[in-house]
Design brief:
The chain is α/β, with parallel strands linked by helices. It has two domains: about 280 residues, TIM Barrel; about 120 residues, Cyclin A, domain 1 (Orthogonal Bundle), CATH 1.10.472. About 45% of the residues lie in helices and about 10% in strands. The strands form two sheets. It has an eight-stranded parallel barrel, surrounded by five helices. Strands 9-10 form a two-stranded antiparallel sheet. The radius of gyration is 22 Å and the shape is globular. The structure holds cobalt (II) ion. The site of cobalt (II) ion (CO) has 4 residues, from loops.
Length: about 475
């Protein structure tokens, strides 16, 4: 227990993804990259998640060029990226050859640590990415997507961590994308996982509800090896805990970190300037600790999209009923975690159930989940719903991995690129597979960086979808449900 904990530095990825809509430009990073490299962090998180989409869509940057530029100025520290398993950095599955090529291109461009997760925690969706990372010389970190449900027990997460180690992962991450992890659970989870695996364990959380600092502290006392921290003002709120704050909290714990305070103050000052420059994309809603969860039961703003949708359907008076139905639908669909795209699917199905009667109409996306096309659900699908869907579609649930049904695509992608007079390289092809128009615009030079002065309307594709626990009183019974928020 005496071994000090180490920090990953997320300011160049999740920090601004969470607090400034992923809009930090490469030019705004370069002046401090050498300084960050000198500080001895376990890793610098610089890439993946929504970065690639944002570079192509909003900043007119080639994301691989960004990675190379950052790596050149920070060669000493490993770089970390977030990869959505078979979905790469998109929301639907890609064929294995595209996943492999993406991993290889990332490592060739300077990436070292690939953090790989699946929204359903279906380890089959992590297999190709983990194997490719190992093959091409990277560090494969398998992540557990943390969520709260009757089937998401400590035992289930421990089992998944063990499975990831057996699959060849070099480390494991507890990825609490919604900031739901409370200190006692963090302690139990870390203790239990550390007892069963030999590889390092890291914790990633968000301070949205003000829970992450104490969860981190509890995890440190339970023996976690690595914590993800950012640098204020791209820290706290919906982002990671602040590095300085976390370091201070650990004084006297026996596992203190010793990152230069002086440099951290300098960096905070620098990033305050950048935060100002990005003010069109920042919001007080993201900066505050959302006590609405505790005080109003349904936090304002959080479900604004969904509430609007209900109003449009003339169901503004049925909010509580629909929220209750969401829990029921989620249960019938095997307690799937609510992150994009499953959150929209569950919400829409719940709305239809309330409006027309349960399962009178089943949406196509719901059918796809039932038929296993998104992956294996954490719990079993309700047998009655399964029968309904099988009868309606004449199909049976797929046995294997969704991506097994996908034909290789790299050759075709390169042909398309060549036909457009664009470079038929692996890099261009993997980007083109995910973001065709945006990639074309960046490669042919027609892309223009977005100029915004007012508060932006952020499209869902670059948002992190977050789930949050909401206490809701329905018919006098208090229930916890998970809902999604965009930011
Ligand atoms: Co995150």
């Amino acid at each position: 227990m005496s071994k000090p904990v180490v920090f990953n530095q997320t300011v160049l990825r999740d920090g601004h993804q969470s607090l400034a809509a992923t809009r930090m430009k490469t030019a705004q990073m370069l002046p401090v990259v050498e300084k960050l490299d000198s500080m001895g962090f376990n890793a610098l998180e610089t890439w993946g998640g929504a970065i690639i989409d944002s570079c192509l869509r909003y900043l007119a940057e080639n994301p691989f060029d960004r990675l190379r530029a950052l790596k050149k100025l920070s060669p000493k520290t490993p770089h970390q990226m977030l990869l959505r398993g078979q979905n790469i950095v998109q929301y639907t599955a890609f064929p294995d050859d595209v996943v492999r090529a993406f991993v290889k291109c990332s490592i060739d461009a300077g990436m070292t640590n690939l953090r790989i997760f699946d929204a359903l925690n279906d380890t089959r969706n992590l297999k190709t990415a983990i194997a490719a990372t190992k093959e091409f010389g990277g560090h494969a970190q398998g992540a557990l997507s943390y969520t709260v449900s009757p089937v998401h027990t400590v035992e289930a997460f421990v089992q998944m961590a063990v499975e990831l180690e057996q699959m060849g992962a070099d480390s494991v991450c507890i990825k609490d994308m919604a900031g739901l992890l409370i200190a006692p659970v963090a302690y139990d989870l870390v203790k239990a996982i550390k007892a069963k695996i030999k590889i390092p364990l890291s914790l990633h959380s968000h301070n949205t509800a003000g829970l992450a600092n104490t969860a981190y502290y509890a995890a440190v006392t339970a023996g976690v090896d690595i914590l993800d921290c950012s640098i204020a003002p791209f820290a706290n709120g919906t982002g990671q805990p602040d590095t300085l704050l976390m370091q201070e909290m650990l004084q006297g714990s026996g596992r203190e970190t010793k990152y230069s305070k002086e440099l951290l103050f300098e960096l905070t000052k620098y990033f305050e300037g950048i935060y100002q420059e990005l003010s069109a994309y920042t919001s007080p809603d993201n900066e505050r600790t959302d006590v609405g969860i505790l005080r109003y039961q349904v936090p304002g703003g959080m479900m604004s999209n969904f509430l609007n949708q209900l109003k449009e359907q003339g169901m503004g008076d049925k909010v509580a009923e629909v929220m209750d139905e969401m829990t029921y639908v989620r249960k019938c669909l095997g307690w799937i975690p609510l992150v994009t795209p499953t959150s929209q699917i569950v919400g829409t199905q719940a709305m239809m159930n309330v409006k027309m009667g349960r399962w009178k109409i089943i949406a196509q996306n719901t059918k796809d989940i039932v038929l296993g096309k998104y992956g294996r659900t954490p719990g079993p699908i309700d047998p009655d719903v399964l029968k309904l869907v099988c009868d309606q579609t004449g199909q049976k649930p797929i046995e294997g991995r969704g991506a097994d049904l996908l034909a290789p695509k790299m050759d075709e992608l390169k042909k398309e690129l060549a036909a457009k007079n664009l470079p038929a390289t692996d890099e261009a092809a993997v980007l083109y597979a995910m973001f065709p128009q945006q990639t074309e615009a960046v490669y042919n030079g027609s892309a223009k960086p977005e100029v915004k002065t007012a508060a932006p309307k952020v499209s869902t594709s670059t948002d992190i979808a977050k789930t949050r626990r909401v206490a809701l009183t329905v018919d006098g019974v208090r229930k916890d449900i998970l809902v999604e928020e965009y930011k």
